[in-house]
Write a structure and sequence with these properties.
Low-confidence stretches: 1-7
Shape: globular
Structural class: mainly beta
Distance between the termini: 24 Å
Radius of gyration: 17 Å
Largest sheet: 8 strands, mixed
Order of helices and strands: EEEEEEEEEEE
Number of strands: 11
Bound molecules: zinc ion
Number of domains: 2
Number of helices: 0
Oligomer: single chain
Mean pLDDT: 90
Strand order of the largest sheet: 1-2-3-11-10-7-8-9
């Protein structure tokens, strides 16, 4: 199987092209060569929210605008998800036999907010608070139509 770095299509085993679909609509820009998370910003106090919210929990202002969030940030805290999360809402592999541990963390996007995110790295030796992280799109599962379901994650910047 070959993943096209540009991102939208991958070659199936028989050479068929599968489409990559986001796990949830409206969470990140897709398709895109440089996907960004979609959040909202309070017009009154400037507070950032993710995912998009209609009202501001900080000042209770009702006016928010959609903003694209930064693709890079720093790792604020992290843990490793060593067993399958509860599904739903989790849409990935929950079979304990094939489940692969993954990192989960908060990534602080400068001047915006902290995002709770899946991490591409699950090795505690390779995760350090304060390290630079970049948003990427990763495969999560395959849907009933044979499309590859993708979600966002943060990867350590090499
Ligand atoms: Zn506000």
């Amino acid at each position: 199987m070959c993943i096209d770095v540009e991102g939208r299509h991958i070659e199936g085993r028989e050479g068929a092209t599968m489409v990559q679909v986001p796990v949830t609509d409206g969470v990140f820009t897709w398709p895109s060569d440089h996907p960004q998370l979609i959040g909202s910003r309070c017009v009154t106090c400037g507070n950032h929210m993710f995912p998009v919210q209609q009202g501001c929990p900080k000042c209770t202002g009702a006016e928010t605008e959609e903003v694209l969030l930064g693709r890079r940030g720093t790792l604020w805290t992290w843990t490793v998800q060593g067993f399958p999360p509860k599904a739903p809402p989790y849409a990935g592999d929950v079979d304990p036999k094939t489940f692969q541990a993954f990192g989960v963390g908060y990534v602080e996007l400068p001047g915006q907010l902290k995002i709770e995110s899946r991490l591409t790295e699950a090795d505690p030796e390779k995760l350090k608070i304060g390290m630079e992280m970049e948003m990427v799109i990763v495969p999560l599962s395959t849907d009933a139509h044979g499309n590859e379901v993708v979600t966002f994650a943060f990867a350590p910047v090499a």
